[in-house]
Amino acid sequence: MRGLTVGLTISAVLSAAAPAFADPPIGIAAAMGFPASIQMFAGGDVDTTRTQDQATSYELTNLGNQPITLTANSDCEAHTWRVTDASGTVVDSAGPCPPGGQPVTAVVAPGKPVDGTSTVTLHVFDYKEGQTYTIHYAAFGAEATSDFTVSLLK
To answer: What is the pTM of this model?
Structure first.
C-alpha cells in the first residue's frame, strides 16, 4: 500500500460456525493506514461528548487463487473498530449499527486488492496525553491494527 502512514498486514482465520461478517474471512489479509500521532482539541469548555473524525484507509488482499466474496448486512457492519490502551483495555469503539441499511459486498480477486477509506469517530476525552493506543480496524471481518499516540491541544 503506497502513501499510508502506518501499514501492517495480518492474516485472518475463520471459525466456520458464524456469519462471514462477524468472523474474519478465510484467505484474506488486511492492512490499514492510520496516523502514528493524532492531535485532539481538548481546550475550552469541557464537552465530555466531543468527538474527532479521523480518516483511515484499508486494503484487503486475497491470499488464495479463487475470488472471495465478502458480505455484511450494512456498511456500518462491514467497517468496525475499537481502540485499546497499553494494557489491552478497550477505551473507545464504534457505536452500535443502526437497524436497516443495505447489504454490502466486496469481491476480492486474487492479485487485485480491494482498498478504501473510512472514518473513525474518536471520543476526545477517552484519551490521555502522550499515551500509546492501538486501533483494531476490521473491514468485512478482516482486522488490522496500528499504534498511535495522542496529543491533547488546550
So the answer is: 0.81
